[in-house]
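Support request, please re-run this one:
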Amino acid sequence: MADLAESISTDINAALDADELELPSLPEVALRIREEAESEFVSAVSLAKVVAEDPALAAQLVRIANSPMFRATRSIDDLGQAISRLGVDHSANVVTGLAMQNMFQATSDFIDRKLRQIWSVSTEVAAWSSILCNHKTRLRPDQATLAGLTHCIGVLPILGWAEEHDHLLRDSMTLDRVIEQIHPSIGGMILRSWNFADDIIGVPEAYHDINRSAASADYVDIVGAATRLITMDADQQLADQEWATSPAFSRLGLTPDLPEEAFDDLREEVSAVQGVFT
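Re-run finished. Output below.
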């Protein structure tokens, strides 16, 4: 199995080098939203007009504005007010991530299930990333959310390739091994082609390494911690995890002696936030 996975990884990398592996494009609605957000004349009203072209995205953005991420005392139901509350940049980043949901679909039942599973994990990672960013850093929660939603974006062309070469992928374990080996570098290439910020581009390429050195907590640390935390069962304690003493966790202030009550509070917030992504 290991030899097969290595062979497939080699084939995919060769296709990538020869420009035969098609990298996904940012969804049209996301492109329009980011273009409007970068305009010197942008306002909450002008951005709302673009977001409103996709009613589902508009509804999700309003739910996010009312979510625990912002601890708002007053509920709102107007898209313009939601964008005003979040800010233009925050709104554009969150909607960009949410617009990618339709990319995680396929015609093959096996690949489609795999993509939907990866999207589900990505939303949970995004929720944890947002909450960790809010509580443990001075970084931007919108960037953390976008980093969480896109940390596995490199899986898309791999599974697209797999649909065309299904005779090589007989089982899920082989596919998982291929994904693990090469999705980080492909993810970085995709985000680079989409002109994402450098601190987001580096996330797919490095989030697995929670022992990396860094001067201070960054989005790589946040997403790396989030991917570990979602694997914990509800009755497990942070102190029981080997990775809880890693430099990434230390930079985030997530030490093994974090009070159980404090960790439970984080879990509750994450659960509430994840609901707005579905």
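The longest helix spans residues 109-136. The CA atoms of residues 5 and 178 lie 5 Å apart.
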